[in-house]
């Protein structure tokens, strides 16, 4: 099918909070510096959930194909693509890396001038057009540089990472977002040290990936915080040493954590997307050197609940995009570490369903019953 339009199934969003509809869509061939891939596995992240709900009005672009966590094989490449060929095993990344811009050449950032994560972008970078359309010829818009809820998708080559052909694609799906974001935050952003103490606020897939990152760095105390009591058992499996449910406490979470850690943890991670939780995470760190890393998605325009003078006590706060991984440069090595079982990726896959049952997979996430539901295409 190289150079030709492909007809395939895709789960199309026609409006906020509406069930996704399995449609036959047309997928154009890749243009210059683009790649068309056949998706084999995809899963649902809270970012997809937030976009599906339409919580940010500026993101309400329809019809649209969501999805950004996946794995597959290259079907064809456009002009100028030299680092991939037909049949290569790949994972898409929402935070691209062109390799040529001032950002990509800097060791201080993993953002890219043209292909960084942008939830408002809905067309291809080269010509401002869509590669998806209905059978009537109407455009279907893209999402997060990826749009993986489709049997075939077209991406900028900067947003596709070639991985070892021996890597298990099922597990590699998680490298597109959740695992890389959480583990990278612990490894790259915070650089968690052996023997240190860590608090993780929100034990979804990203939060548990942070736990896994802290465990592999041999943190001595890993406190998991979640209002869902069912997260205790899974958290213990992944490596938490203590569990706190704010609903069960008679005092603020940060006060309890300070008691447990002789003044506060060395690192805290906010993975819940809640401003009040950011404040608790910040205050739970140790005076003088504590670091808070923000990973949650915050769709509201409200600002940080911090007084500037609180930053004069030595505590720091920062955000982390894609775990500070440079996708195309560093992800292949991360995949090799996962292949050596240094990271327990399979623990994150709690459910598996056929692609046709994608709406059921969404409801599992809405109900807090799944970490990652893997969809087989």
TrEMBL record:
The answer to whether the entry has keyword Metal-binding is yes
Annotated GO biological processes are: formaldehyde catabolic process
Q: Which family is annotated?
A: Belongs to the zinc-containing alcohol dehydrogenase family. Class-III subfamily.
- Give the matching PROSITE patterns: ADH_ZINC (PS00059)
Q: Which branch of life, at top level?
A: Eukaryota
GO cellular component terms given for this protein: cytosol
Give all residue intervals belonging to the Alcohol dehydrogenase-like C-terminal domain.
Answer: 205-326
* Alcohol dehydrogenase-like N-terminal domain location: 32-164
GO molecular function per UniProt: S-(hydroxymethyl)glutathione dehydrogenase [NAD(P)+] activity; zinc ion binding
Q: Name one Pfam family in it.
A: ADH_N
Q: Which CDD domains match?
A: alcohol_DH_plants
Assembly description:
Homodimer.
Cofactors demanded by this protein: Zn(2+)
Q: Which InterPro entries match?
A: ADH-like_C, ADH-like_N, ADH_Zn_CS, GroES-like_sf, NAD(P)-bd_dom_sf
Q: Which UniProt keywords apply?
A: Metal-binding, NAD, Oxidoreductase, Zinc
Check the record and name the PANTHER family matching this protein.
Answer: ALCOHOL DEHYDROGENASE, ALCOHOL DEHYDROGENASE-LIKE 4
**Regions annotated as coiled coil:** none
Under which name does UniProt file this protein? Answer: Alcohol dehydrogenase
């Amino acid at each position: 099918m190289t150079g030709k339009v492909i007809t395939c199934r895709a789960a199309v969003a026609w409006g906020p909070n509406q069930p996704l509809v399995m449609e036959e869509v047309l997928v154009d061939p890749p243009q210059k510096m683009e790649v068309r891939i056949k998706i084999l596995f995809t899963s649902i992240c809270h970012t997809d959930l937030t976009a599906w709900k339409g919580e940010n009005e500026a993101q309400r672009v329809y019809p649209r194909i969501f999805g950004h966590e996946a794995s597959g094989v290259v079907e064809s490449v456009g002009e100028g693509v030299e680092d991939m060929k037909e049949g290569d095993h790949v994972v898409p990344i929402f935070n691209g890396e062109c390799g040529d811009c001032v950002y990509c050449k800097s060791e201080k950032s993993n953002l890219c001038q043209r292909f960084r994560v942008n939830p408002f972008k809905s067309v291809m970078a080269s010509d401002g057009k869509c590669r998806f359309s209905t059978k009537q010829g109407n455009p279907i818009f893209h999402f997060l540089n990826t749009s993986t809820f489709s049997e075939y998708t077209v991406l900028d080559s900067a947003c596709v990472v070639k991985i070892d052909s021996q890597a298990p694609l099922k597990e590699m799906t998680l490298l597109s977002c959740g695992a890389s974001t959480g583990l990278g935050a612990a490894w790259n952003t915070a650089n968690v040290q052996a023997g240190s103490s860590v608090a993780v606020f929100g034990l979804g897939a990203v939060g548990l990936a942070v736990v896994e990152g802290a465990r592999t760095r041999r943190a001595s105390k890993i406190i998991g915080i979640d209002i869902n009591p069912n997260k205790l058992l899974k958290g213990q499996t992944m490596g938490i040493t203590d569990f706190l449910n704010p609903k069960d406490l008679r005092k603020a979470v940060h006060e309890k954590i300070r008691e447990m850690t002789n003044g506060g943890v060395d690192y805290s991670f906010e993975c819940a997307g809640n401003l009040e939780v950011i404040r608790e995470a910040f205050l739970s760190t140790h005076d003088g050197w504590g670091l808070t890393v923000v990973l949650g998605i915050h769709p509201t325009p409200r600002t940080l609940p911090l007084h500037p003078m609180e930053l004069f006590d030595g505590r720091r706060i920062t955000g982390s995009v894609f775990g500070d991984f440079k996708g195309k440069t560093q992800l292949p090595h991360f995949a090799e570490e996962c292949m050596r079982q240094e990271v327990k990726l399979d623990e994150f896959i709690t459910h598996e369903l056929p692609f046709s049952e994608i709406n059921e997979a969404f409801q599992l996430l809405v109900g807090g019953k799944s970490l990652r539901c893997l969809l087989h295409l």
